[in-house]
Amino acid sequence: MIQWNEHLINGARRAVREGRTVRIHDAATEAPLGEVHLGNAGDVDEAVEAARLALPGWQQMGVDARAALLRAVADALESMGQDLAHGISREVGMPLKLSQRIQVEAPIAAWRATAALADTFSFVSEVGNSRVTQVPVGVVAAITPWNYPLHQITGKLAPALLAGCTVVLKPSELAPAASAGLMAACERAGLPPGVLNIVLGDAEVGHALVTHPDVHMVSFTGSTAVGRKVAALAAGDMKRVSMELGGKSAAMVLPGADLARAVKATVASCFLNSGQTCSAITRLIVSREDYPACRALLAEAVAGMRMGDPADASTRIGPLLSALQRERVLAHIAEAEQGGFDRIAGGPDAPVPEHGYFVAPTIYGNVAPDSRLANEEVFGPVLAVLCYETVEDAIALANGTRYGLAASVWAVDEASGEAVANALRAGQVDVNGARFNAAAPFGGFGMSGVGREGGVYGLEEFLEPRAIQFPR
Ligand code: NAD
Q1: What is the rounded distance in angstroms from the CA atom of residue 408 to the CA atom of residue 428?
Q2: Is 244 a catalytic residue?
């Protein structure tokens, strides 16, 4: 069994002193993988102090030197890419082939793309008799979830470090491989001591970080329930917050759009990483006339998805993270069964592999708009299909949850798709299957969060403008 039992504080590894641990299991076999040792508030104090002391030197180093170090981190991560992809796949359950591309290669590209912003971003501008300088916010607490662990860490660390902030990271205690790899990568890259500190822990460590008086900003990704608590605590001393939270994103198929393509893309999005994706499309909104054809296409699409061993190259659907996660998802499915919706695929008794935390890809049609399934994030492979009578109806349904992270619009042409996209309260809307753009802002309206990650928008989150006036 692997023991994840070291913090990174002030450039050195430090053994976790406290005795509490969390057991991690292989998602596909349920065999124990290892133990994560959990730190405490004392560790947070040491890490924040190291970050505070490292701040002036890191700022003075200049953006080009910081960008060079970001590229060195990317190179070091690349050299351990295979191990990282394996580790994350075993923890989270994502098929290995996808894990390589999405869990590892995409974040490495993001470290490099963020470094490249050093060449184009204007840190100083002239406004009348003022010189406006973008200065780093200061010491950042980064708290991240388990579902895309390296990606979510990268979305905070790379821009924070480029901006000149120093960071204390508390990664998810449920997916430790990514931060362990990152720790080694930062050592190899020669990041100066204290610039990045990593404290292993759970809610106790997260709470200590959020309430620490020397932390200037909290950048949090996780559930809306925890995000609300964290934002309220951070407001106590007016820390800047950035919140990337849950979602219940919808795809709308407008009259005359390509239904077959819409169904294919929706199924791919909903069941990616077994539904453990914040921006997954988990509601499909179709016209009542299209419903019978949509139903048949959905059933066919799911029948072709192989569920099984994440290491097998033909597997499309792996297991969920843990027994607890499977239990939560099955509770949503049980409730949907009681709602009397039209089960199109999967369900509580659908066959799954004998070992591993599997839930069969499940689809319900004619889902009531006021049901829990239509409104709450499941974080598992469950799609809800809702029917509309008019396009206004469809827009109201899409905007009808408290979330607002992503959406897809399928339309006869781009102009009508854009018109509907403009009516949606969602941070990311793709029209007719357009691909993800890592340089575009990513984040949510409403209960999906505050602030944006990605590209220049992600960098600006970690900067404060300071205006200096001159007697001109
Ligand atoms: P979670 O909210 O349970 O935990 C997230 C992090 O917060 C973990 O590191 C956890 O240890 C820490 N934490 C828990 N309680 C805390 C507390 N009281 N104070 C401070 N920190 C605390 O979420 P999760 O289960 O790890 O991740 C799944 C959730 O994350 C889903 O809701 C998903 O939609 C969301 N998510 C959002 C995005 C996005 O970009 N919007 C991306 C990925 C995941």
Answers
A1: 8
A2: yes
